[in-house]
Design goal:
This protein is mainly α. It has helices spanning about 5-25, 30-35, 45, 55-60, 65-70, 75-80, 90-105. It is about 60% helix and about 0% strand.
Length: about 110
């Protein structure tokens, strides 16, 4: 039988593992359908960088991390509609990525 202290420690571990799982899922482009059904568990900062989660982010703009979204290459049209919220440093990363890819593709 577990002591009360051991039980408390186990509950804390389970909670920490659950948070970790949802953080990993929030960044996984293939997990968006799971996240859509569990919005209360989504880690919004991480989800904001998920390229397949744009439609979820668009429906929850109040939860978006604009710095992470500004680094998300699939978020261009959403950023264009919210110019005042763009993190220009993050947006610049996207531009540099596109320029690099353009150089590779045009060789």
């Amino acid at each position: 039988m577990m002591t009360e202290s051991e039980m408390t420690e186990l509950k804390i571990r389970i909670e920490m593992e659950s948070r970790t799982i949802w953080a990993v899922l929030s960044g996984n482009p293939n997990a968006v359908s799971i996240l859509e059904k569990n919005l209360d568990k989504v880690k919004w900062m991480i989800l904001s960088g998920n390229p397949n989660a744009i439609y979820l982010l668009e429906r929850n703009l109040d939860k978006v991390n604009w710095e992470k979204l500004s680094e998300n290459p699939n978020a261009i049209y959403l950023l264009e509609r919210n110019l005042d919220k763009i993190s220009w440093f993050g947006y610049q990363k996207i531009q540099m990525l596109f320029l690099s890819l353009n150089k590779i593709w045009t060789k």
